[in-house]
């Protein structure tokens, strides 16, 4: 199949890649670029393990064509790293036992980061709804919710407080 040239940004870096038009985004990330954080667990859009952000929105990379991402910004779990170290969410997952086999974890994290970018103080219900497309068969979810809640509290404490009348 004839390859076509696409340009996209992945975790902040520009890429120009020659790909077949039917190349799946997940295969491009894992096989061509070695970004193996995103997982293939079901391959039919039902588990969320392959979730990445495309222009800031969680998408399933196992059924998305890479060519359809032309000109867009892709963020994978590797892009969450904080100056090469673990991001707060990754640390919290470790602290609270939010990951067991870890297969679902990258996909969950990409959805959580999208949620918190759009809602810095989500209710329990809003967290559950946001994560309803991500499935975990190991943890029972409660440790994950504890980790997410800890990150929310830490980010709220760190947020600068607005001074009334400052403007
Ligand atoms: S591997 Fe993509 S949704 Fe399961
Ligand atoms: S930690 Fe194993 S599937 Fe979620």
Describe the structure.
The chain is of the alpha+beta class and 167 residues long. It has two domains: 4-79, Ubiquitin-like (UB roll); 88-158, [2Fe-2S]-binding domain (DNA polymerase, domain 1, Orthogonal Bundle), CATH 1.10.150. The protein contains five helices and five strands. The chain has helices at 25-32, 88-96, 105-118, 124-130, 142-158; strands at 4-10, 13-19, 51-54, 57-60, 73-75. It has a five-stranded mixed β-sheet, covered by helices on one side. A hairpin with a 2-residue loop joins strand 3 (51-54) and strand 4 (57-60). It starts with a strand and ends in a 9-residue tail after the last helix. The model has no long low-confidence stretch (mean pLDDT 93). The chain binds FE2/S2 (inorganic) cluster (2 copies). Residues 99-105, 136-139 line the site of one FE2/S2 (inorganic) cluster.
Notable traits:
Ubiquitin-like (UB roll), binds FE2/S2 (inorganic) cluster, alpha+beta, DNA polymerase, domain 1, 167 residues, 5-stranded mixed β-sheet
In brief:
With 167 residues, the chain is of the alpha+beta class. Helices cover 33% and strands 15% of the residues. The mean pLDDT is 93.
